[in-house]
Amino acid sequence: MNRPALSFSIDGDFALDSPPRTPHWPPVQPLEANRHAASSDIHWQRFAVAYDYPVAFTREIFSLDNALLADVISRREPCKPHRCLVYVDSGVAATWPDLNRRIEAYFTAHANRLTLLAAPITVPGGESVKANLDTIDDVLEGIRRYGVDRHAYLIVIGGGAVLDALGLAAAMGHRGVRLIRLPTTVLSQNDSGVGVKNAVNFKGYKNFIGTFAPPWAVLNDFDFLSTLSRRDRLAGISEAIKVALIRDGEFFNWLEANADSLAEFDPRTEEVMIRRSAELHMQQIGRGGDPFEQGSSRPLDYGHWAAHKLEALTHHGIGHGEAVAIGIALDARYSVLTGLLPAGAEWRIVWLLKRLGLPVFHSQLMELGDDGDLAVMSGLKEFQQHLGGELTITLLAALGRGHDVHEIDETTMTAAIDWLREEANRDAAA
To answer: Quick one: where's region Disordered (predicted)?
Structure first.
């Protein structure tokens, strides 16, 4: 009896041939003989993978009657208990001493859908977690020990640095376990926590080791913001200012008009700021055409080339949000000096940053490197190396519109730094 033979095309389409045919394969040629193969001998593998994940905003996420966490975990497989391993930023744990008890009570209340594999595990918070690869090893060991596989969940509660580092471990374990982020800072709720990047530092190089790995879900609980210091809470607003400057002039106007309320942490104003900033970041990632940064442009990193270098020069004595504020002011002034941005616009930006208590200058901007040039300028080369390709820096063409350039004039940038220094001196003298 003749049976249909199953065959498939190089594009992955299946077809049934009847009756079966005897294939007439060409004779195998040595590799050397195929060195100049025709283009028709090259087969392209193409496929698309759709990514989707919810970004939600709530309060009291571990309240027993708040089903958000249980719902997002079981959204595809509702009829079984899902195994979860929870990690908590040490800074959050210190300011929320009953958090572990509340987590355990939540899992007990939702035992039909959730299983807690171990008591919540505390990990170091802040930039130190990204500088020490031992934490990555510890989390990978936890994934192995507790049997976290690709259908189990790693739940990470913490600031941007902890989300970055443990997100990398989640992407590495079994080539990717399901990650749920619970960002606890303004900076991570309105920016880094909603994206697709995970990374740690390596030998002083910011985010040198990392992956692009979309999370299973991002759940923003505004109540976590109460655990922050005033300094950290304000610093996170810098990323909202950044994305407003390159994407939404009306949002920048709103930030100006509500600066006093933001500085006083008015809950409603803070929530609007975080939601809109997160939305703009998500739009760029989802619709910008380059979510995994295969090109040479990083528009969401306006102000960051100097910020990353400044963090390193100060040995992280200055926080990321504060460094970004300085980078924003610096590139705004440079945009004016090069004729891209109308004169006077940089004053509005500087006023807003200062009104929120954010810095616009740091003395390390004046530090000289071994070559006698400003050390911060080496950040341009490091920024280019991180992406590859040509140098691409986002500047401002208007308040709300970014503009990419491919070279930076060092003399003009030095003049922009001098302008910021003079501004800082005027403030000190006042």
So the answer is: 1-21
Within a domain: residue 36?
no
**Phi and psi (nearest 5°) for 383?**
-65, -45
In three-state secondary structure terms, 121 is strand
Which helix (H) or strand (E) is 6 found in, with range?
strand 5-8
Confidence (pTM): 0.86
Token representation of residue 362: 């740091």
Length of the chain measured in residues: 430
Which positions ≥6 away from 68 have C-beta within 8 Å?
56, 58, 61, 219
Total tally of structural domains belonging to the chain = 2
Alpha-carbon span 283 to 290, nearest angstrom? 11
Asked whether residue 9 is domain-assigned, the answer is no
pLDDT for position 285: 86
Q: Bridge-partner residues for 402, per DSSP?
A: 396
Intervals of the chain under pLDDT 70: 1-40, 295-297
Nearest by Cα to 302 from 188, 392, 428:
392
User: Domain limits at 60?
Assistant: 55-228
- The DSSP 8-state label assigned to residue 349 in this structure reads H
Residue 22 CA, chain-centre distance (Å), reads 54
Which pLDDT does position 9 carry in this prediction? 32
Report helix, strand and coil shares of the chain as percent, to nearest 5: 50, 15, 35
- Residues 270, 212: one domain? no
Question: Are residue 78 and residue 121 in the same domain, yes or no?
Answer: yes
**What values do phi and psi take at 7, rounded to 5?**
-135, 165
| Residue 319 domain-assigned (yes or no) | yes
CA distance 320 to 304: 9
Tens-digit pLDDT profile for residues 223-238: 999 989 999 999 999 9
CB contact set of 415 (below 8 Å; sequence gap of 6+): 337
